[in-house]
Specification:
Blueprint: E1 3-7, E2 10-13, E3 18-25, E4 32-37, E5 44-49, E6 55-57, E7 65-70, E8 75-80, E9 89-95, E10 112-113, E11 117-122
Parallel strand pairs: 2-11
Antiparallel strand pairs: 1-3, 3-8, 4-5, 4-9, 5-6, 7-8, 9-10, 9-11
């Protein structure tokens, strides 16, 4: 099975930027996604990308975040800009069973998950 590891989280001021990295061991071609969860809140989708590099975003991050991947490097990134306190939480990298992402970014459709990386945004 796949093993996913996130890195790049940290603390930034509002308006700042971070880049999260997800490395995948045992990688094969899958739809990959980024999700986040604030304390006491449900996990929510942030972005997803299929094996062809076609990306989709939640409305709350579209235009500010960019998801990219390099299949040869077994790596997925999430570039986050114009961060605000509502973006804070634990960010998780996840993989589906298929290369397609479709339009559904429900966490329940993603089988493999990393341990998460913390993102804090101060006002």
């Amino acid at each position: 099975q796949l093993q996913l590891t996130e890195s790049g989280g940290g603390s930034v001021q509002g308006g700042g930027s971070l880049r999260l990295t997800c490395t995948v061991a045992g990688y094969d071609l899958r739809c990959m996604g980024w999700f986040r969860q604030a304390p006491g809140e449900d996990r929510e989708a942030v972005a997803a990308i299929n094996t062809a590099g076609e990306a989709q975003y939640s409305d709350s991050v579209r235009g500010r975040f960019t998801i990219t991947r390099d299949n040869d490097k077994n790596t997925v990134w999430l570039n986050m800009a114009s961060l605000n306190p509502e973006d804070a939480g634990v960010y998780y990298c996840a993989a589906r069973e298929t290369w397609r992402c479709g339009t559904d970014m429900s966490p329940t459709t993603f089988k493999y998950w990393g341990q998460g990386t913390q993102v804090s945004v101060s006002s």
